[in-house]
Design a protein that fits this description.
Two copies of one chain form a homodimer. Chain A contains 13 helices and 20 strands. With 419 residues, the first copy, chain A, is α/β, with parallel strands linked by helices. Chain A has two domains: 255 residues, Acetylglutamate kinase-like (Carbamate kinase); 154 residues, VC0802-like, CATH 3.30.2130. An eight-stranded mixed sheet of chain A has the order 3-6-2-1-9-11-12-10, with helices on both faces. Chain A has a four-stranded antiparallel sheet with strand order 13-18-20-19, with helices on both faces. The mean pLDDT of chain A is 90. Chains A and B meet through helix 1, helix 2, helix 3 and helix 4 of A and helix 1, helix 2, helix 3 and helix 4 of B.
């Protein structure tokens, strides 16, 4: 018997029939003797419907009132799921975030969880009840409802699991786990049975959308064993089979780790590259270029500055493609003349491809295999950035799929993992 | 400058455009210097949608979870209305019942308000903000969300007005006040400028649907000046005109009261009559007949027992027409043989017509004018019951409209009120 947290997304909660399926799955775990806490999202479409209403009234809805509105979607979900469990004879009780309470800061629409009181939940679990808690939301110190931002239900589930010291947090979703890369690009992509927290964090930050990045950070900080698995299996499949399915995010590198050097290839086309040429190489120049960009609320991802030759250098960075025009305007209008730089050269047609793997810490030659593989395919590398467990390159975007497939093969990710 | 409470029903909150109209109306009162508290209902159709979802999952939804679900409708309304006020430059803040808090007992789906904390609301009003509070709901001592039952938003508004000692509680609705009778039956029906609390209570209990009866009880208990007025006037009409429109429920009989002896004719076709004939006239017989009816959860309205002639009597009462068959079954199956009564005779085709008026306290001859009028129209009276300020009769239902029109004329309700 263990304390288990389940999280179900909006698609899993999307209709009365699907909610009944969720109840059947939870009932199966409860019947096996587990103490069950369930964190559901709003029914699919509901959050968008509410935000749509708000925007008809205020083009920039007041954040506090938007949270008042948006939090109702999950409240409906928990009530319906509690009914569905009772309908199949399982005692259950639902709580909104403020009832637990799940305490957050007061950053409406993007609040951060500060603490979770476990006393009420533990009393219910002790009495044999399934406890259902709204995802996505909490309450600030003044008693205002807050929400955690899009995808926040993942974070709620992991945070609840941390507060209750749950044995495992199971995130049910419409994919059956974390893959070596996107199977739509590389049909040979394999599901990873395990992945480390650090790798998952890199994958999430590199654009792999399986889990919200803050939930991964939370899992890492509180060492919550988190499993991503499919909500599309029949709810009555064998519990042991279900419990071993999907991908487990672990913290023990040597415990049964797959021995692959790298665990996956991440990629995205979301970015654009900007280069400021002929920049005087003097202290403070990076701030003089990026300061005005930050003031315009533009996030910068990769930043590259080469060693200078003859006192001048080129300074490159990437921004989200949606903010490319805005960033170019800032640079041309204010930065260029002020620092007496050369041309501002931009390119929105780039892709970022990354190899991620905790194994590369102890292996040399990962970077050279990556660069050789791209070279053999005739793909030019425009920018490079590295961390301890990932290497990212920027290439022309039309080569992205080719690069991903070639790297997936070169790193033997299509082969069964060695024991 | 006064503290004013506005209540808007589901129709007034039924669309984004209508919510903007409500905001415009509230902004007008706020601009005139009033401290404003607004209690809106859920958008029309929303509560039914939520209850429909619940019933798809549990035919008898769990009451606590149903309240969790149903309370979200008003939460959406308050958030949207706060945004609509901010959109026109009026500072506003919304609260769910639990945030005020509005404390209730724990009778889920039909809770009663026990107390309302006014400190948070007063602080906001003092800071010049319009305060918007969810109707229909509160929180019990254990922190569970409760709802007050259908029409509960009227009660919420009056209770909030009582707690804040508001100058007046304005109930905006789709009729423009309380009438001497239903204008669909009597085109000459007049709107009453004022009506006493006691009269309003009788009218509500007799089926006039302008206000929920519990809200009238609340208004009476705490002496809340309550006005029923139209939400269909243009939101920018002159404030003084609007403030004097509709019908005011008063507590001071002699202060400018209309001098009419009776104030209105109420009627309904919701009831059915049942007579147990040849009942032995002995102590406890009423309990032996009505006890099993009450145990079957059937509400009884009028009860008539005549003085006995020769030791046996007839015992008659009325029930809601929906429960007629059930009541007849209880009487035939269990009561009849036990008390050795004669036949059980029932009639669902009845109507109840009542004259209501605080003036009849000091006037004789009201009953005889009522009975003579019905007699002149050839209408037979089947049952009579009276209170201090109303006389009700049961008649054959096909005569109902005729009776209402004749009584309306006989009591000169079609004439302008005397000063």
């Amino acid at each position: 018997m263990a304390l288990i947290v389940h999280k179900y997304g909006g698609t899993s909660m999307g209709s009365v029939e699907r909610i009944k399926n969720v109840a059947q799955r939870v009932a199966k775990w409860h019947a096996a003797g587990h103490q069950m806490v369930v964190v559901p999202s709003a029914m699919s479409g509901e959050t968008n419907r509410l935000i749509g209403l708000a925007k008809e009234i205020q083009s920039q809805p007041d954040p506090r009132e938007l949270d008042m509105l948006a939090s109702t979607g999950e409240q409906v979900s928990v009530g319906l799921l509690a009914m569905a469990l009772k309908a199949v004879g399982v005692p259950a009780v639902s709580y909104a975030g403020w009832q637990v309470p799940v305490r957050t800061d007061n950053a409406f629409t993007k609040a951060r969880i500060e603490s979770i009181d476990d006393s009420r939940v533990r009393a219910d679990l002790g009495a044999g009840r399934v406890v259902i808690i709204t995802g996505f939301q909490g309450v600030d110190a003044s008693g205002n409802i807050t929400t955690l931002g899009r995808g926040g239900s993942d974070t709620s589930a992991v945070a609840v699991a941390a507060a209750l010291e749950a044995e495992e947090c199971l995130i049910y979703t419409d994919v059956d786990g974390v893959y070596t890369t996107d199977p739509r690009v590389v049909p040979e992509a394999r599901r990873l049975a395990r992945v480390t927290f650090e790798e998952m964090l890199e994958m999430a930050s590199l654009g792999s959308k399986v889990l919200q990045i803050r939930s991964v950070e939370f899992a890492g900080k509180y060492r919550v064993k988190t499993r991503v698995l499919s909500s599309l299996t029949p709810p009555d499949i064998d519990l042991a089979t279900e419990a071993a399915s999907g991908t487990l995010i672990t913290f023990e590198e040597d415990e049964q780790m797959e021995k692959a050097v790298i665990s996956g290839i991440a990629f995205n086309r979301d970015e654009a590259k900007i280069t400021v040429t002929n920049v005087p190489d003097r202290p403070g120049i990076a701030y003089q270029i990026l300061g005005p960009v930050a003031e315009a609320n533009i996030d910068v991802d990769m930043i590259i500055q080469n060693a200078s030759v003859g006192g001048n250098t080129d300074f490159s960075f990437t921004v989200h493609r949606n903010e490319y025009q805005k960033a170019m305007a800032v640079l041309n209008d204010t930065v260029k003349s002020r620092i007496q730089a050369g041309d501002i050269v931009g390119d929105p047609k780039i892709a970022k491809v990354s190899v991620v793997g905790i194994g590369m810490r102890s292996h040399v030659g990962i970077a050279s295999l990556m660069f050789r593989t791209l070279s053999q395919e005739g793909i030019n590398i425009q920018m490079i950035s590295t961390s301890e467990i990932k290497i990212s390159v920027v290439i022309e975007d039309k080569y992205m799929e080719l690069a991903v497939r070639a790297l997936h093969k070169a790193f033997e990710l299509d082969q069964p993992a060695a024991a």
